[in-house]
Amino acid sequence: xxxxxxxxxxxxxxxxxxxxxxxxxxxxxxxxxxxxxxxxxxxxxxxxxxxxxxxxxxxxxxxxxxxxxxxxxxxxxxxxxxxxxxxxxxxxxxxxxxxxxxxxxxxxxxxxxxxxxxxxxxxxxxxxxxxxxxxxxxxxxxxxxxxxxxxxxxxxxxxxxxxxxxxxxxxxxxxxxxxxxxxxxxxxxxxxxxxxxxxxxxxxxxxxxxxxxxxxxxxxxxxxxxxxxxxxxxxxxxxxxxxxxxxxxxxxxxxxxxxxxxxxxxxxxxxxxxxxxxxxxxxxxxxxxxxxxxxxxxxxxxxxxxxxxxxxxxxxxxxxxxxxxxxxxxxxxxxxxxxxxxxxxxxxxxxxxxxxxxxxxxxxxxxxxxxxxxxxxxxxxxxxxxxxxxxxxxxxxxxxxxxxxxxxxxx
Length: 411
What we know:
about 400 residues; mainly alpha; 20 helices
């Protein structure tokens, strides 16, 4: 048969053939490694995802990327969780699987205060779940979008999203997503001044959550219902203490922080027990830090800083400001934590006599928030104006701001 000579029409063809051979060999090697790891260390999800992916076994790679993401999320390693869920999503082609991964990806983004990205991811997932007629998952993601929008500082927008969600699921069967949406709608109603509606939907959410044994939603709803009963401090504290106890017993740190924050406020205002209130607020901040909720941590520490200012501990607050500013600078957007820090920072300026900068901030906030309808920021800006007017002994400016503040509270 003798020697055979091959002539290729293009010089890149032989290198492409060689690369193909090497790729096939490499995939076989990765498959062998993945099989061995699966037998010896089946919980090494990260390695298994990588090797199955390199072996071209997409279904197994997706499985292990998803498991790795869920484990990272449970350990509050939210950046890792985001990366793993995104890797799984890049390989996925099935609509139900894609929707579930998008839901998990959005949560990992939200827990890093990547609020805009989370909302866009969830909106994509909502569209897929609608196409699959999975109404309860639609409800769940509208609920999460409602909370994230509120966290971002858009009080009015959070209410609109909750209303949109309810229009899709109002007559749906009871389910975890539906219960969560009722809880978030109740919360949005409260912060938009619809107190009766907040109470009614909160009670409905609590009954559904108790029926389905959804402890997380029970905690969220109890915390909102407590806010609706502030004319009865004993009942408010009872609800909040029950919420905190349930959250601790069920290892729900994010829900616990909200209960502790609100408990701190109640202990301060209704029991005049500053140390007890401070302990609760510090506990909320410590838990938020542990779970990677930097915006929450900043929010609780800024609340505490405001209390310290009101007690005349100006030097102590000044010492803490650089640490809080460092957290604020790391956060994107304008969440509740950044709002709280901005308020603390500018009021601290006023206490040192820098009224112009404090008032400039307040007036800028007032102009923007009146137009946007953001009640949280409007309230914050008015509080700064009122406090500066007291310090400057300028009753005219203070009375005007106080009048608007009272009108806001009544509405």
